[in-house]
Amino acid sequence: MTESTFYSDRAGLGKGRVSETISAEVWAGLTTLIQQRIDDGSLARAFPLYACPDDPGRNTVTGTNEEKFLQSLTAHVPDLIERPAAPDPGPDGKSAEIDIGWPSSGSQGAEPPRSPLDPNDVPDTATALDLIDFVALHIDQPTRRSSHNWNFDHTHYSFRQHDAFYDTELTPGQDQLKRDVDLLFARNGIAYTVGDDMRVRRLGPTEARPLISEFRPATGDPQLDNKLKDAMARFLSREPADRRDALEKLWDAFERLKTLELGGGSLKKTSASQLLTRAASGSEPFRELLEAEFKTLTSIGNDFTIRHHEHDKEDVPTDAAIDYLFVRLTSVISVVLRHTGRMAP
Asked: Taking the model in full, what pTM does it have?
């Protein structure tokens, strides 16, 4: 068992993180979490409110300007609000102005705008994850809060000075958001996480997670290492197109892997044979197993639209099939690299 905030997790009774859909419960939790960040000043550096009557120069941050935050949010993640279709052109051939949901200050009797953070209005999963990415870009926990009661009670917020170029570590606000989102996802079985780059990424299939997290190639061939690392990164993307691209890149790396021992060209078969012999560690049955798997995977790459895209090739039918093929090839490559001393500890 591992330490966790909740008993059910410590007892091994928590949910498996297998769902790639943001549920209504998770969305409500996310909106609450982000509203808390608005209220506690964690978004005030990027969207400052200057409401201190004792500071006419507007140098003192007194909170988050929620209106500016929401305007920027919906500009970057427009699917969080309804965008009505453009009206039919009028008699003069010109279209009327499109209402995007934010009423003008002088509008009378206008319905209140739809809130992008309505906990009861669940968007699609991609939009919900875009929201997290947006907040992660702008969050920065205040380093100091002080009360000021001039005219009315309010709070002054201060932030540490930092340089985005030199400061590579997460800020306290980023780190807290990362941990809070991950806890919420873990408790609800959501197979996404916030990476160290503060971007939401996919965890991938359960069986692939230890394999990918410990996959650190050190083949001595920088081009091969880069292909393998790029494939792993793309496989964890939220976008299905990136995962298909990852499959193609992994198969390209597999073909280059076969040339590690003796070089490329006409020596490819000889190189692959020697590679299998080394990887088998003296076991002929295991060598035969690896050789059969190499041949099968080579045929898969040639027969499906992985390495070739002619009309007579079969498409990989589903995202689940992509996951299966990616994990299968990664397992074989991992065994070969580890048994030949080409995987970093």
From this structure: 0.73
